[in-house]
Write the structure tokens for this entry.
Amino acid sequence: MNLLMLKKLIGIVDNPSEGFDITSKVLAKINIGGQEVWLTQTVVTTWVIMAALIIFALIVRIKLSSFKEKPDGFQNIVELGIENMYKLVVTCMTEKYDYFGKWFFGLFCFILCSNLSGLLGFRAPTADLSTTVAAALATFVMMHFMGIVTGKASYFKGYIEPVPFLLPLNIVSEIATPISLSFRLFGNIMGGMAIMSLIYSLPRWLNFGIPAVFHVYFDVFAGCIQTVVFVMLSMTFIKDKIAD
Amino acid sequence: MDDPKAFVMGCSAIGAGIAMIAGVGPGIGQGFAAGKGAEAVGRQPEARSTVTSTMILGCAVAESTGIYGLVIALLLLFADPFGVKAW
């Protein structure tokens, strides 16, 4: 690996003294069949998080054979996460639709890791609108798929209620759902990043220890709350569309 | 007003500041939700977890208007919607 490659790899770590930019840096441009593909900080950080999650999943899978009736240590942590997620899904979506828990647990882990990756100096993938819109569109598709499958005619009837005159308004409110869902996560993480870069641009003697306090608030606290909110709102939206 | 670029950039900065007035609404809304949540927990301490999760959900929804303001402000400051840098 030559020095240039190494420099580009280190480029995924933001240098706070360089200031703040709303778009993530383009590290490399690859040509795939005439189509230029940009490898941005977001893409590379997402790969790192994916690799970490896959390795964790493999470790759990290997250790699964040695799991005991009475959990201890590592097994406790895994079971705690699974059980809490299951409880959240059951309270939001009832036991009949608990199979959504598998998807939402994966989404939860990914968003939580991306929000917390700011602590390691990465640029959080959720601070890029593309990531959050992708996650919100998945919710959007699931909402309407479940609505059509379970409701059939009553789903389409819902658009002309209470009066047919309100049809355009109903359609706009459906489109607003993924927008508000994605912008909420993006705005929170991006706003945290903007304020963090302002704090890092303070004089050097003020930069000793003080940013750590703000990192705890903007990365850990806001990141965890927004993860829970994103997942819980997605579940609530899907449950609202399901006709029972 | 020699440089029109500077004028547009300055107006963008003022606009970003005005956009952040949107932060007033969520402040009031979330404070109201948190106050009512505290009231509910005080009246029924055993329902604490349900009240808390409902409150967080409500706060998140109330927050979205403020976030829209923040996104507009960030766009005005960094994303260059009027193409000033391309002039």
Summary: Chain A is about 65% helix and 5% strand. The CA atoms of residues 152 and 243 of chain A lie 9 Å apart. The mean pLDDT of chain A is 85. Residues 167-200 of chain A form the longest helix (34 residues).
